[in-house]
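hey so i finally got around to running the thing on that chain from the lab meeting. sorry it took forever, my laptop kept dying and i had to restart like 3 times. anyway pasting the input first so we r on the same page abt which one it is
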Amino acid sequence: QVQLVETGGGLVQAGGSLRLSCAASGRTFSNYAMGWFRQAPGKEREFVAAISWSGSSTVYTDSVKGRFTISRDNRKNTVYLQMNSLKPEDTAVYYCAAVYSPYNRRVRDLPSEYDYWGQGTQVTVSS
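ok and heres what got predicted. didnt touch it at all, straight out
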């Protein structure tokens, strides 16, 4: 089992920044590829960004490219999502997720590909 705990959400004005963190425990963190997803009220959960086990591969959904950056620190068992130039449409509950994928540069963008999920953290961007 892998336990994931997201922190860093909050209320921010449009144009502002937040950094989300996701702390993992329970298994060897570096064996897992990680992803960030979000879900707005009344909408399906959508992919935001993903990173491979080593951090060498990343992928982003088009709407956040150039504004969000995913990174990880395997020594701290933590994955981050730096969010800049936030827009009201970024408002959602943000979830981190993990999938067992050691020594594999592939990054995954479907919720069904992930095995473990955090409880989520609310991000609200006011206009």
